[in-house]
Amino acid sequence: MPDLEAILLVGGQGTRLRPLTLGTPKPLLPTAGVPFLAHQLARARSFGVRHIVFATSYKASMFEPVFGDGSAFGLTLEYMTEETPLGTGGAIRNAAQALGSAPDAPVLVLNGDILSGHDIGDQVRTHVERQAAVTLHLTEVEDPTRFGCVPTDPSGRVTAFLEKTPNPVTNRINAGCYVFTRSVIDSIPEGEVVSVERQTFPGLIEAGELVLGYADRTYWLDVGTPAAFVRGSSDLVLGHLASPALPGATGEYLALEGARVSPAAKVEGGTTVGARSVVEPGASVVGSVLGDDCVIMSGASVTDSVVGDGARISAGAVLRDAVIGEGAVVGSGNELQAGVRVWPGVELPECAVRFTSDV
Ligand code: GTP
User: Fold this and answer.
1) 1 CA to middle of ligand 1, Å?
2) What 8-state DSSP symbol labels residue 83?
3) Which of 184, 200, 222 is where one domain is finished?
4) Same domain assignment for residues 257 and 126
5) What CATH number is attached to the domain comprising 266?
């Protein structure tokens, strides 16, 4: 098969991950020690992709300084920016101007916030063999009521794109990785806001085109929420999903350059300790992402949380499922749980926030 080209959708605002995404777009957030996209780029490359076009919009200028022309990753990278966001379909159409593929060639399209262990090569082969217009990766989730679902017939043909409903007909959902036949991308209207999920795919089904489902049950995670983001990072560090981009061995934690973890601290569950960060004796950090230059003081407990660069968690503070913005200070005795977010630079005085379930 000739080299495969890909489009990476990275223009979303990542609203669910605020305040982390106020200064950094979601695909660049440090995940298991490297920008999130580095994992996707490495996986795409391992399946023979060599040319990737980034479809950028939100904070578009931040991508090229990180990934450059791609040569450091064994890839050729290009950047296509929408002046105003064009939605997923409009973004794919805009980025396709930089592709060299022939009209009948397959083009891989990836959402820039998905971790997936599925066999991209097999998805592409299936697409080509069945001569589909689009082949969608479908994953199975336990609770499909939170997603739109995608039923297929016994031959794998997608029969509908259904919105969220309390009684879904299948637990298969769109997993955010598509193979398009190039000419199908060219049929998306140019310069218009278009959603592939709401317009392009239902339109193709309506027109009788073959939209194929490629279903599997390998590792899959949409890192769009803080809880999912910390889980994705931890899973990579623990080795639950292999990534060629992991900057170290898999294990209970990953310590980046200059990090100091006291042997008398408990650090586990796939935690990343950012560069020059300090975890003091008696502190506990489990399944979390610590940015660079953080301090976790003695007796502090951080679980399933994100701590931004330069933040300080004081002695005895307890964090669970919390997001602490860059440079924030959590004073001792605070207890932050259940999705609490502390905005960058905020200083929480001692014992300012307690969590209690008995009111
Ligand atoms: P939320 O705001 O938290 O929902 O996140 P998001 O902005 O990333 O939206 P969503 O998860 O629905 O987006 C799916 C993928 O498409 C992500 O990889 C986004 O970066 C990307 N995306 C969404 N809208 C656009 C757009 O208008 N332009 C481009 N280039 N990419 C987009």
Assistant:
1) 30
2) S
3) 222
4) no
5) 2.160.10.10
Could you give the number of structural domains in the chain? 2
Q: What number does the ligand 1 atom closest to the CA of 25 have?
A: 20
Note whether 283 and 205 are same-domain residues.
no
pLDDT of residue 167: 84
From 7, 8, 10, 177, mutation site for ligand 1 pocket: most ligand atoms within 8 A of C-beta: 10
- Does ligand 1 lie within 6 Å of residue 226's CB atom? no
Co-location of 131 and 21 in the same domain? yes
Residues 156 and 264 in one domain: no
Residues 30 and 128 in one domain: yes
The domain containing residue 121 runs over which residues?
4-222
DSSP 8-state assignment for residue 28: G
Indicate if ligand 1 lies below 6 Å from the C-beta of 50.
Answer: no
Q: What is the pTM of this model?
A: 0.91
Is residue 246 a part of any domain in this protein? Answer: no
Q: How confident is the model at residue 358 (pLDDT cuts 50, 70, 90)?
A: low
**pLDDT tens profile 207-262:** 999 999 999 999 999 998 999 999 999 999 999 999 999 999 999 999 999 999 99
Same domain assignment for residues 264 and 212: no
- CA 291 – ligand 1 centroid, Å: 24
Structure tokens at 148: 């739109």
CB under 8 A, 24+ apart: contacts of 23-28: 23/326, 23/344, 24/59, 24/62, 25/58, 25/59, 25/62, 25/63, 26/112, 26/113, 26/223, 26/224, 27/63, 27/112, 27/113, 28/62, 28/63, 28/66
Q: What is the pLDDT of residues 173-216, one digit of tens each?
A: 999 999 999 999 999 999 999 999 999 999 999 999 999 999 99
